Amino acid sequence: MLHFAGGSNPRTPRASRALSRKGTRRIAALVAVPLLAVSVAACSDDDGSDSKPPSVSGSWGKKPKIDKGAGDPPSDLKTQVLKSGDGQKVRKGDAVSAHYVGQLWNGKEFDSSWKRKAPATFQIGTGKVIKGWDEALVGKKIGSRVEIVAPPNKGYGKKGQPPTIPGNSTLVFVVDLEKIAPNKIDGKPVDKPQNSQLPKVSTKVDKDKAPSIEMPKGKDEAPDELISETVVKGDGKKSVDEKSTILTHFTAKAWKGGKQLDDTWAQGGAPQEIPVAQIPGWGKGLKGAKAGSRVVVSVPQSEFPKEQRKQFKDGVVFSVDILEVK
């Protein structure tokens, strides 16, 4: 995992490793999606049919207090709607933004979006998160608070997620469903040739995979200056500035050899909320772009923190899809 200095707030490496099914190295620690983004086959617990889900207190939108479980944990998935929302129902394939807290049956907390002060976004119902979430949240309405008790075969199974989640753990989540996020941009391709100094990026929009990036022949390093170009132009109401947070899908490659460095499509299937100041070059390169746009940003070595310039000596090219601007 790669950490950037200057405004970053790195999170634990295990979170990003959990998300990355293909071992892709992540460009920014903030992009790392929390622990529930891997589904692992496993055996179930002993029968705990007489047990009850832990009690939950607190209002929707604020971090809840969850009691520890009593007795043996259940062997089946348990789902309880603690507050019913009045929004649209979550469907398979939706990218859902949610605040949540997760703890073990014994009451020990292992993850919380409230601690990170930002909701997380996940694709639901397609195997991109643990089975307990996929099965419990499809059909629930936005605005709801849902308690999920997931036995090992609906969570991380025999192996767990050391060191915070032991093997064969029953997990308890309380999830506040905030919204269904857009999962692809809706802008129009720009009707002019792309800048020959930049890699050629496809303007085809696919919610399930990153656009292709064709690296220029004979060029093994980024131009000396930061260069950006909008190749798909959106018409959102708000433009990006250097203080913006965006909901985005992005892919990144090293200039030399076109080595893949990051790809949010491949690492969980859902867009992520990222402050543009978090990633070198984004504040300048995305400035003025609107939601619905795809922007190509070439970031030279000089834009990276000093301690990482050797690592990115040839520069990086990003293709950034801007779904929302906040």
Structure notes:
This protein is mainly beta and 326 residues long. The protein has four helices and 17 strands. It folds into two domains: 56-181, Roll (Chitinase A, domain 3), CATH 3.10.50.40; 184-325, Roll (Chitinase A, domain 3), CATH 3.10.50. The chain has helices spanning 13-19, 113-116, 131-137, 282-285, and strands at 56-57, 65-66, 78-83, 95-104, 109-112, 120-123, 145-150, 171-181, 188-189, 200-201, 213-214, 227-233, 245-254, 260-263, 272-275, 294-299, 316-325. The strands form four sheets. Strands 9, 12, 13, 14, 15, 16 and 17 form a seven-stranded antiparallel sheet that branches. Strands 3, 4, 5, 6, 7 and 8 form a six-stranded antiparallel sheet that branches. The chain has a two-stranded antiparallel ribbon with strand order 1-2. It starts with 12 loop residues before the first helix and ends with a strand. Residues 1-25, 28-34 and 38-48 have low confidence and may be disordered.
Helix content: under 10%
What is the strand tally?
17
Distance between the termini: 26 Å
CATH arch. level architecture of the largest domain:
Roll
Examine the coordinates and then state which fold CATH places here, giving the name of the CATH topology of the largest domain.
Chitinase A, domain 3
CATH class call of the largest domain: Alpha Beta
Low-confidence stretches: 1-25, 28-34, 38-48
What Rg do the Cα atoms give? 21 Å
Average of per-residue pLDDT values:
85
Number of domains: 2
Strand residues, percent? 25-35%
Order of helices and strands: HEEEEEHEHEEEEEEEEEHEE
Biased composition (Basic and acidic residues): 203-221
Enzyme class: isomerase
Pfam families: FKBP_C
InterPro entries: PPIase_dom_sf, PPIase_FKBP_dom
